[in-house]
# Entry
Amino acid sequence: MKNTLKNLKKIREKRVGKLKNFTKEERIEINPEIVLGKPVIRGTRLTVEYVLKLLGQGIKPEEILKGYPQLEKEDIEAVLDYAFKRVSEEKIFPLTLQVQNNYENSIGRKHFAPNFQSVNKERARS
# Structure
């Protein structure tokens, strides 16, 4: 097991250099050739989304690190930092719901089958 762990870390370090030199931002990578461009932990195919899902399911960071020995505590911190930044930059736009009195006319009768009749507010009350 220890040899496997050492091998995983060596392989990862070869691919991305010395990990200690990376900032949190640099530990997250977006590359169209890796997992369709989803944000991943650099040097792995573990997506930010997947790690967040594990954390959301109540799995402790220590357990994740045991299951993925090539990761470091700083990688988990980088995932959380990345997610925080994305959510804090999110813009919320209010949506309003409009009820159409005559739905058929709003999109055109031609879109319905010949015998189809929509129910508008007046017909629904009767």
Remarks:
- The CA atoms of residues 33 and 46 lie 14 Å apart.
- The longest strand covers residues 28-29.
- The beta strands are 28-29, 40-41.
